[in-house]
């Protein structure tokens, strides 16, 4: 069905290791992303039973050549020289309709040479969570891996308790991570490292090949994409939860949705992940952590770069520092959009600081606040003003802020600015309690809530009755305070 190619498998052994999927008991298709399949070059989509066989790994897909990828990584700051795909298999790459090479990978398809103590499987919950959140991110225009298929395995996997198993099919620009470079660098095999770097330049950053120092140019491009990515995450309250270097994509996509979650009541120090005890990956730490990860990437590239000694380190450090202005510029642009200000406005930073403080002090839900502000900008009606003020515990303070905002915003007179404001402020995000509700229903065999939530979060600007119902913030009893990797 998919016209596979196998470029990554031509890289030397520890980077790609031939591995077969382990069949599951009785695969059944939960979801298949037909529009994405067409984008990837699929002509005809077979029946669900065949899809279930293929996307569980039970039957080899025509032309697939499954392999597990080696990578290393800093996990919560500690270097682990060998991680790798412990429960994932790269089936191959396809050239999509835009001429872009993209990976297709099974996740939860059984043990691999990199599995260590793990069972190579995925529980159903994290599969559904990744499907929903990654497709929402794509609908928001945020660079991300995509969901192609989800299949239940008919087997139980044991975590804290026995849970239904599932296999997820992920599509990525590539699965090359900062940790992949760390893996090659740790082997102290410069030829291996160079082969990887040249592959990445050819595949993701072809313009770097013509630079005076292609590897320095590669670093510069990766820094720029990460800076934009993290600014976009933060503009909608996304908290990745496990920004280890092995979860940091060289192509600049959001990858490895584990305990990720969206901010509800605004708090810059917010952490959801149960394993993030030190709050290393708190919301507001994300830019600094991305920069730290990029410094680890830079270290791996030093042996390939032209300069030597102190001059080399200085040059690389200077590029890592550029993360900050690039991040700031993207954030300024996004903040102007979110507030309905002209793009060149110099008030965005101050107004956003003011509103963030209102949201924090007034215990306001981040998504609901920006949605209400967008509705108010459209109508300037008392009703929408009241709707916004109802979100805070400090309406007098917010009223004062609104006065300053009103004088600066142009969204209610400028259609283009309003469109930008709307597209920066979704009506709905996949809220933690809704995702949990959907998982609970699926564990009882009912996938209808999953399909409903998926339909709504992939049209995040639609103002339907169903969207409004599923968009509502959690009540106190519905709140999900902790999220789990679920691996
Ligand atoms: P993650 O938490 O998904 O980023 O994974 C971190 C590392 O643990 C990667 O090397 C994974 O392949 C590995 N891993 C996670 N879950 C499993 C599992 N069930 N079986 C084998 N390896 C796993
Ligand atoms: Mg990972």
Account of the protein in words:
There is one protein chain. A hairpin with a 5-residue loop joins β6 (88-95) and β7 (101-107). The strands form 4 sheets. Strands 2, 6, 7, 8, 9 and 10 form a 6-stranded antiparallel β-sheet that branches. The chain is α+β, with helices and mostly antiparallel strands and 487 residues long. It is globular, with a radius of gyration of 23 Å. The model has no long low-confidence stretch (mean pLDDT 97). The chain has helices at 34-39, 48-54, 124-139, 178-186, 190-204, 214-235, 286-301, 309-321, 323-339, 348-361, 366-379, 382-389, 395-408, 415-424, 432-443, 448-457, 465-471; strands at residues 16-18, 28-32, 67-69, 73-75, 78-80, 88-95, 101-107, 122-123, 146-158, 162-172, 238-239, 261-262. It folds into 3 domains: 8-172, no CATH class; 178-330, no CATH class; 331-424, no CATH class. The chain binds adenosine monophosphate (AMP) and magnesium ion (MG). Adenosine monophosphate (AMP) is lined by residues 83-87, 114-115, 118-121, 247, 256, 258, 485, 487. Belongs to the SELO family. Keywords: ATP-binding, Magnesium, Manganese, Metal-binding, Nucleotide-binding, Nucleotidyltransferase, Transferase.
Heterogens: adenosine monophosphate, magnesium ion
> How would you classify the helix and strand content by structural class?
alpha+beta
What is the CA-based Rg, rounded?
23 Å
How many distinct folded domains?
A: 3
Mean pLDDT: 97
Helix segment tally? 17
The shape is: globular
Helical content band: 40-55%
Oligomer: single chain
The fraction of residues in strands falls at 5-15%
Count of beta strands: 12
Profile the largest sheet. Answer: 6 strands, antiparallel
Instruction: Give the uncertain stretches in residue-range form.
Output: none
